[in-house]
Each structure stands twice: as structure tokens, then as C-alpha cells.
Amino acid sequence: MKAKGTIWHDQLFFILLGVAAICFGLTRFAQVRFFALPATILLAPRTAVGSLFTTVTALRRENERLGELAVRQELDNGFWRDLAGAAARESLSTRYRFQKALVVGRDPQTLVRTLIVDRGLLNGARTNMAAITDAGIAGKVIEAGASLSFVATILNPRFKAAALNLRSRVAGVVGFREGNLLSMDYVLPEMDMKVGDTIVTSGTGGIFPKGLKVGCIVRVDSAPRGMFRRIDIRPAVDVAAVERVYLIEAKDWDVAQRRRDEVRAELKSKAQAELRRLLETSPVEQTGVTGKATE
Amino acid sequence: MKHFLLILLAYLLAMLQLGMRAWFPDLLLLLVVTAAVFEERDFAILIGFLAGLFLDLGNPGLLGANMLIYLVVGYGVVLARRVVYEKISYAVVLCAGALALKYTLGWLLTGTLPVAWELLLACGLTLLLLLPVHQLIKLLFGYRWKVA
């Protein structure tokens, strides 16, 4: 004979079994009618969590899209507006490729000579890419590692860039002077340069596109002691405060680089040929000179 | 309180299991088996029923099938636990029996079974997870083995 508790357990089992069997036997319509509300309530947390994941994913995608849009807007609003002319704007937008790089390190001594950015060969960064900000040029990549690159800033003694005066179109080469100043070299005394003139890149160096802002002239030596004038420029970019740069490269970078290499090789071979010719002809000339002297 | 937490756990596992592929290990079954081994008989029956109910409410069109399956599994384990109560290794046998019961009942009630490899994988994974889940639930709820 079964104990009282056991009978109760059996009864509970059979009651629940009956309930389950009735539920199973209900038509689809009746199931929906009776269980739609409990199902909705019970599944609400799951639905909420699911929609939360969907929302987070959608928000992340939206955030990425807006980030890209912000970069583009930033370039449009600040950087493009200050360019020298429509031609340069068109040239930059059509011929150059941009990628944003965050500054993740600086040289430990001065903090402004070299920057380390978070883009390397794996991300498409290469040596000699220009580094710019929305204010103007910031430097150029001097060494690209796997995932980091070193950027020589405009305040680095190794940095040189071909530039010109936006007003008078006088060309020269911009380099580091001292402290927080740049110099513009190879400008003859008679050239038209005034304090306050804007200096932009000339686009002839092959690294920087034409028309990017370099800085403003703060001093022009009116009485040059040497062959050229001394011109001091205050950079447009505050290198000490730069947190991110845009690395840019020409879309036909490979073609341009190959062409440069070909020209360089051609010039080298021409120079060698010229040197050979000079070496071959020089003994004759020397003999002539000697002959004259003896006469 | 313990019973409430067990029901909540069953609910969470049912929500987790909803929408999973057929090869996914049946964690709810592990909970029902473990609860049926350690808990009182009426609660063991009840949690089997509720586990099935939670699954059924998320599976429109098959209302009642899971309720029947898990209820029978819970009750079956309650009946069998007198024999396999003493050693944890017996729980593996118990779980294997519960799995066999579940799929047999599922086939009888709905006329469908998962594909062979999914079925084998689900059973294998469930059996693999039995001991960790068993120990975890024991730790969480302070169950101890005792002689029936």
C-alpha cells in the first residue's frame, strides 16, 4: 500500500499531466487566445535583451558612420576652407586618399620633434606620407612600422618642404629654425616677402599637395648678411597640441613613385655619362694647357 | 527562496535555449534532472512542468509538448532516484535515460526528431555538461548527497 505522501505526489503528477495534455490538445486558435498574453509577458525580458543587442549593434554602426562623416565634415569646414584655391581643393579631394591617425607617442626629449601615430604598414601607412591637420601641414612619415609610424614634425631638423608665399608666389624651402619657428630658405633679397604673409606648400616636393597652409611670416630680415634673406615663420599647426593627424597619399602614389625613380635613375646615368666624358677629355685639355705654358 | 531561485533559473535557461539550434545541449533538462534528484518530490514534478511551460510559451504551435516531456522526465527521475541516489556517477545514467525519454516523447508527440548528428551532438554535449552543471547547482543551492 502506498504512503499518503506518495499518493499526493502521484495526484500532483497526474493533475499536471492532464493540464499539459489539455494544452497540447488545444487548437492553434485556442492556444493563441489563451496563452498569447502570458507568453508575451514571459518573453518580454528576452525580447528586451534581444532588442538591446540589436540597438547596440545598430548604434555602433551608426557611430562608425557618423565618425567618418565627422572627419569629412571637419575636413570640409576647417581644412578645405583655408586652402589656397579651388584647384588645390579639387586636387586634394580627387587625387589624395586620407586616413585618420591618432598620436600615441612623442619623442621623449622635446615632445615636438617626432610623433608616433597608430597607423602602420598594415593599415596602409607608408614612408613619406604627408601628415596634416585641419590647420595645415604637421609633418611627414619618416618610418612606417607594422602598426605604428614615426612622423617627423615640421619642428624636426630633418623636415624640409617646398613652399611659396601665397600673396607674391615667391618660392623657397621651409625647414626648422629654432624653438617654435620655421625658416624659409633660398629667398633672394629682392623677392617680395612681408610680415604676415601666408606660406603654403608649393606641391613641387612630391610629398605635400599644393596649397596646404604652413604658417605666417613673423620676421623678414631686411638687411641680409648673406646671399639669402632670413625669413621666420610661425607654424599654423601647434605641434605640441596635436592629438591626431591625417595621413594622406596620392591615389596614384605608386605610379608617381615609379616615375620619380625612373627620372632619378635617368639623371644618375646621365651624370655618370657626363662624368665619364669629362674624365676622358680632361688629359687632352691638360696637355694643351701644359703646351701653352711651355710656349 | 531556494525554490523561487530554481524556478528563475529554469526560466533563464529556457529563454537561453529558445531559438538555439537542435545540437545545443539541453541545459534545462540538466536542471530538471538535478532538481529532481535533490529536491522534494512535489517540487521536482512542478519544476519539470514549469520548465516545459517556459519552453512552450516561446514555441508557438507546440504548446503542451514540452510540458509533457519535462514533466514526465522530472517524474521519471523522481521515481528512479531511489536506485541511483547514492553516487554521482549514477546521475550520468539517469541523464542518459532522461535524454532518451525526452527524445522518444518528443518524437511521439510531434513526430519529429533532430537530424542524427545534431541529436548525437546534443546528447553528447548534455552528458558532458552534466557533471559541471550538477556540481554548480549543488554549490549554489547547498545540496548534499544522502542515502535514500
Describe what you observe in this structure.
The complex is a heterodimer of chains A (295) and B (148). Chain A has 295 residues and is of the alpha+beta class. Helices cover 43% and strands 25% of the residues of chain A. Chain A folds into two domains: 7-94, no CATH class; 96-254, Thrombin, subunit H (Beta Barrel). The relative contact order of chain B is 0.17. Chain B is 74% helix and 0% strand. Chain B is mainly alpha-helical and 148 residues long. Chain B is globular and about 40 Å long. In chain B, helix 2 runs parallel beside helix 4, helix 3 (41-57) runs antiparallel to helix 4 (65-80) and helix 5 crosses helix 6. Chain B has a single domain, classed as Orthogonal Bundle (Arp2/3 complex 21 kDa subunit ARPC3), CATH 1.10.1760. The interface between A and B is medium-sized, with 26 and 25 residues.
Order of strands across the biggest sheet of chain A? Answer: 1-2-5-4-3-12
The biggest sheet of chain A amounts to: 6 strands, antiparallel, barrel
Spans where pLDDT lies below 50 across 5 or more residues of chain B: none
- Separate helix tally of chain A: 4
Name the beta content range of chain B: under 5%
Number of helices of chain B: 6
Strand content of chain A: 25-35%
| Secondary structure category of chain A | alpha+beta
The H-and-E topology of chain A, N to C, reads as: HHHEEEEEEEEEEEEH
Total strands of chain A: 12
The protein's oligomeric status is: heterodimer
**N-to-C CA distance of chain A:** 151 Å
CATH architecture of chain B: Orthogonal Bundle
Rg result of chain B: 14 Å
Low-confidence segments of chain A, given as residue ranges, are 286-295
Helix content of chain A: 40-55%
Question: How helix-rich are the residues of chain B, as a percent range?
Answer: over 70%
Number of domains of chain A: 2
Shape, principal axes of CA atoms of chain A? elongated
For the record, the CATH architecture of the largest domain in chain A stands as: Beta Barrel
